[in-house]
Write a structure and sequence with these properties.
This protein is an all-alpha fold. It has three helices and no strands. Helix 2 (51-60) packs antiparallel against helix 3.
């Protein structure tokens, strides 16, 4: 059996433009999603922790004692 270039290759060639545009569309969606997530990164609740949340974690981890926690929390809430 001999192989002919026309056998079956017409389907591959006809799918290439469709696959190309699907790839362009997916790339566009990825770029938009990353831009949206980057913009939200600076907003509280979207990846950036508030100062009080960081303070709570430090207290829970034992990095600071209760007196230090209360003092710093009072300073944060005054602002």
């Amino acid at each position: 059996m001999t192989f002919h270039w026309g056998d079956g290759w017409i389907w591959v060639v006809s799918l290439l433009p469709i696959l190309f545009w699907i790839g362009v569309l997916l790339l566009g969606v990825i770029v938009v999603v990353r831009l949206i997530n980057r913009d939200r990164a600076g907003m509280p609740g979207y990846g950036s922790d508030s100062a009080e949340e960081i303070l709570r974690r430090r207290f829970a981890a034992g990095e600071i004692d209760a007196d230090e926690y209360e003092r710093r929390l009072e300073i944060l809430r005054r602002r």
